[in-house]
Design goal:
With about 240 residues, this protein is an alpha/beta fold. The chain has two domains: about 1-40, no CATH class; about 55-200, 2-Layer Sandwich (Nucleotidyltransferase, domain 5). The protein is about 50% helix and about 15% strand. The chain has nine helices and five strands; from the N terminus they run H-H-H-E-H-E-E-H-E-H-E-H-H-H. Strand 2 and strand 3 form a beta hairpin. The protein is elongated, with a radius of gyration of 21 Å. The protein starts with a helix and ends with a helix.
Length: about 240
């Protein structure tokens, strides 16, 4: 019950809900707005361990969450730019379960968070991450070098005009040459790149269920709200 209330009700409405509920449950002590805010920001949440003994194929992606529901007219009228916060996830393509989750501000690039996602995914599964599937936002020498050093195969869409020379990343150069040799369709089918849509589908599911706007005001509370929504969605998916 606690997670359902957190995900759907603003804190003021939650306070009213609890006060009304306490009329029917005398032993229930309704918390006020301040107490609710403080407690919800410190709920211990973590991704459940997935018992996947074999090689794990991970799809990574990132999305933005709006921090205000004022609407575009209000933004234009009052010249208010609230921005957004960014959610980075890694999903196991076989079980469609969440393996890694990070929330950052909008200035953090997708590629910057990939090493952290991979490391967190390794901790949340009994198997070894074998492949990492990502779109062009993860196409960089640093990413290819990192995955090569971890003995993980990068299934990342490289740019059409990418150089076939190493230039500091032999792993990326080899991937570019192979894609040119096979053609995009051949490369996509060989590595089953279409499985990357599991991450996008996961994000879409969270937004359909809980919306794409956060109600909290402080950054800490915003991050906690988003984490709560994603972990609740993952919990519901496991049932």
């Amino acid at each position: 019950m606690r997670f359902y209330i957190v995900a759907f009700l603003p804190y003021r409405q939650m306070e009213g809900f609890l006060r009304k509920l306490s009329e029917y449950i005398p032993k229930l002590e309704a918390a006020d707005y301040t107490t609710i805010c403080k407690r919800l920001q410190h709920i211990p949440l973590d991704i459940s361990l997935q018992d996947i003994p074999n090689d794990v194929i991970v799809a990574v992606d990132a999305t933005g969450m709006k921090v205000s529901s004022r609407g575009e007219w209000m933004r234009h009228k009052w010249k208010v730019r609230k921005g957004w916060i960014k959610v980075h996830i890694a999903v196991d393509v076989k079980t469609k379960k969440l393996l890694a989750l990070y929330v950052t501000d909008e200035r953090t690039g997708d590629g910057q968070m990939l090493p952290s996602l991979v490391e967190q995914a390794q901790r949340h599964t009994a198997g070894q991450v074998k492949d990492v599937l990502g779109d062009g936002a993860y196409d960089s020498k640093a990413i290819f070098n990192y995955l090569d050093g971890q003995d993980i195969r990068p299934v990342i869409k490289t740019r059409k005009d990418a150089s076939t020379r190493a230039h500091g990343s032999p792993a990326r150069a080899a991937a570019v040459r192979e894609r040119r040799q096979l053609g995009y369709d051949g490369w996509r089918d060989k590595y089953r790149y279409g499985q990357r849509w599991m991450a996008e589908s996961y994000i879409s599911g969270v937004k359909r269920m809980f919306g794409e706007t956060v109600r909290a005001h402080s950054q800490e509370a915003m991050f906690q709200e988003v984490i709560t929504k994603f972990i609740l969605y993952d919990t519901l998916m496991m049932r």
